[in-house]
Amino acid sequence: MKKLRKAVFPVGGLGTRFLPATKAMPKEMLTVVDRPLIQYAVDEAREAEIEQMIFVTGRGKSAIEDHFDISYELETTMSERGKDLDAIQGTRFRPGEVIYVRQQEPIGLGHAIWCARHIIGDEPFAIFLPDELMVGTPGCMKQMVEAYEQTGGNIVCGYEVPDSETHKYGVITPGEQHGALVEVKALVEKPAPGTAPSNLMIPGRYILQPEVMRVLEGQARGAGNEIQLTDAMAQMIGTQPFHAWRFDGRRFDCGDKAGFITANIALALDREDIAPAVRSWMRDTLG
Ligand code: G1P
């Protein structure tokens, strides 16, 4: 089995749900407490020992590249003033750790992933959707890699949501279950309300075999008239092992305003430096 070394981060999306905040700023740069969303995803990948990050980006997204670059002005000024550089530690990519590819038209997640096919080559790869903030010990991808080392093949993360939310996501038809590992029998993207095969949705973390790129090559448009990754994955079932891993941790859908605010409150309450002030305000406000 080939070791998982590469990860794709689709970051070309327009972020229309967060306008006007995302008019000039990429949605992946929205901050939860004091870190942009994209950094949580990259840190999760590094924890899972992923060596090469592939960003599928688009116009107006250069703030993401700058975030992971060296900021000479900032570092020099801070050093001259005797300030330590802790706050920007870990935001630099090592030379060669990152590759940027452009998705020239926003026609779906499946198409974004396919844009990275030449860099993936014939290796398994991970995908991170940075809108989804996954908080766990160990992190979500590290948990999935441990499962992958047992099963091989393809693994998607699985997370239970209420019936009222399944229509927003990719949803799994579960088969046999062994602990947190669930056999995947079928997948559907954004099922109409009331028609979802289960409550187990895919919260934006995947480990896939490179054959999915061949399937994406001829993939017809699906839900929302977009080329869907879920539809391509569904065609892999039966040809290769396909499992879901029930993530043991907290999940925040930061592509949604309420989810984003919740993530900020939850992670603020985890932080010793700011939790007391936030908790005290909440107590006063909520009673
Ligand atoms: C995408 C995927 C969907 C997944 C979701 C997670 O949907 O297509 O399968 O469940 O991310 O947030 P999108 O949010 O781009 O509509």
How would you sum up this structure, described in words?
The chain has ten helices and 14 strands. It has 287 residues and is an alpha/beta fold. The protein is globular, with a radius of gyration of 19 Å. 40% of the residues are buried. The mean pLDDT is 95. 1-O-phosphono-alpha-D-glucopyranose binds next to α8.
Architecture blueprint of SSEs:
Elements: E1 6-10, E2 31-32, E3 35-36, H1 37-47, E4 52-57, H2 62-67, H3 72-80, E5 98-102, H4 109-114, H5 117-120, E6 125-128, E7 132-135, H6 140-151, E8 154-160, E9 170-178, E10 181-189, E11 200-201, E12 205-208, H7 211-217, H8 229-236, E13 242-246, E14 250-253, H9 257-269, H10 275-286
Parallel strand pairs: 1-4, 1-6, 4-5, 8-13
Antiparallel strand pairs: 2-3, 6-12, 7-14, 8-11, 8-12, 9-10, 10-13
The site of 1-O-phosphono-alpha-D-glucopyranose has 15 residues, from helix 8.
How far apart lie the N and C ends?
55 Å
Low-confidence stretches: none
Computed Rg:
19 Å
- Total beta strands: 14
Following the backbone from N to C, one meets helices and strands in this order, namely EEEHEHHEHHEEHEEEEEHHEEHH
CATH class: Alpha Beta
Total domain modules: 1
Strand content: 15-25%
Kindly summarize this structure in a few lines:
The protein has 287 residues and is an alpha/beta fold. It is built from ten helices and 14 strands.
Properties at a glance:
287 residues, alpha/beta, 10-stranded mixed sheet, two-stranded antiparallel sheet, 31% helix, binds 1-O-phosphono-alpha-D-glucopyranose
